[in-house]
Amino acid sequence: MSFAAPCTRCAGLLAAATLALSLPAAAGAQSVQDQEYRLIQVHSLLLDLPPLQAPAALEPGTVVPSVEAVFIPHIDGRVGDKQELTASDHTPVFPRPRLMLGLPAPQGFRTFVGLAFIPPITVASVSTTYVAGELGIGVAPGALRLGLRVHGVYAETLSPVTDPTTRDLLTTRTVGAELAAGLHLGHRDLFAEPYLGAGVVSLAGRFHVTVDGNVLHSAYTGAALQLGVRTVFHSRLELVGEVDSYPERFTHGSLRVGWLFGP
Description:
It is a single chain. By secondary structure, the chain is mainly beta. The chain has one domain: Calycin beta-barrel core domain (Lipocalin), CATH 2.40.128.20. 13% of the residues lie in helices and 53% in strands. It has 3 helices and 13 strands. The strands form 2 sheets. A 10-stranded antiparallel beta barrel has the order 1-4-5-6-7-8-10-11-12-13. A two-stranded antiparallel sheet has the order 2-3. β11 and β12 (237-246) form a beta hairpin. The longest helix is centred in the first third of the chain and has 16 residues, at 4-19. The chain is elongated and about 60 Å long.
């Protein structure tokens, strides 16, 4: 089979992943308290660490430093008769550095670990201290790719929310896991790997209002769905586009660009 045809289809999927309209995160709850809880959940899920990688992708000894662009959907900040500032009011996208490492594994398996970190640099009155880790294992029989991944996130975000002249604090803890399946199309120097995944994510968010000292806690557990395409050029340049959906919360897209060192 020629690589041109599947590559064209993969390019279409990648375009869909990068250009798909993000679904708005609406404040459709019935009470003010529920609206506050929903906003905590939405902002915490924005900081989740989705795969942005095909299953069973990395051979042992492969090191992939990369940077991601995480696109922020419109978030409705209505709380009762007030309009709070949300992430989409500050920026449409935020960057996230990420590092992945392929580990030695039993014959027939592929494993990896990953780390993401955002330093507390203030931009437009917003700063995030962020650290996340992940561990994955998979198999690659022929062109088929299957994998399991677990991850965890801790983040502290300072930003104007309830008052544009102050900065409130959101503390986020997130854990999750998913199963994924994909296909390897092409050859070593140029190939694409479309994939899809499904799993669960659980979070605990704590929101501290600076003005009055009020503290809100919100917990959430729900599904997490992924659709993406990984493309590798000249065996080294890696481009991944992914659409991530958290049903009844929001859908958004991300891009990752990395360089493969090693085998």
